[in-house]
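Field reference: sequence -> structure
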Amino acid sequence: MDILFNADDFGITKGVSNGIIQAHQHGVISSTTIMMNGLAVDYAIDLAKQCPSLDIGLHLILTSGKPLFSPTSSLTNERGMFRFTNRFYEMDIPCLDDVRDEWRAQIEAFLATGLPLHHLDSHHHIHGWQPLKEIVIELADKYQIPVRCQDTFRDRTDLLLTEALWVDFYGDGAGLNIFERLHTYSFSSVEVMTHPGRCDGDLYTMSSYTVQREKELDILCNLSIPSWANVL
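Structure field:
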């Protein structure tokens, strides 16, 4: 089984970004996805350029912070912040042109760094929201880039980064038994979504997932890889 350990939220804060680099250099993380509107995005870009062995993808954002394309649109609230939350599926659908413009701006901002783009995923899995499906497909085709597995794209498996996505390495589900659990999977390739990091003061203003990131970091740096697993 091919297993890709990806770290979400690169660039959200300096502490998280440092933790992700540590999880790559001393653990099983081989790719990460950057938040182009993160508090420490410039810092993360510098780290990435110093660590070329770490693949960098893009964490598409509609549910955290401020947009890159327009300060006012169907995506924002009265404070100019993204109005969507992790319960976006209960909210009204935004203007699709606004989503397309914003995500294109995030991709172009990434490409302007000169870093190679490894894949696309999203904060809170919003790229898997059915109303946004055609936009994701359009962008994946335009930029010739794979996309994190979501059930929404089962009819476009040619676009998928891996055959399956493991989302249970999170909170109480993060443990040293991850390979035992993955061994029950029948897929040939799987991405393990992770959130390692160092907890800093800025993180408390950006995320409810804080000290748990340090637990994940410790686990990811102390895993023994079994012979049957091909960690990418």
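Note: DSSP finds seven helices and seven strands in the chain.
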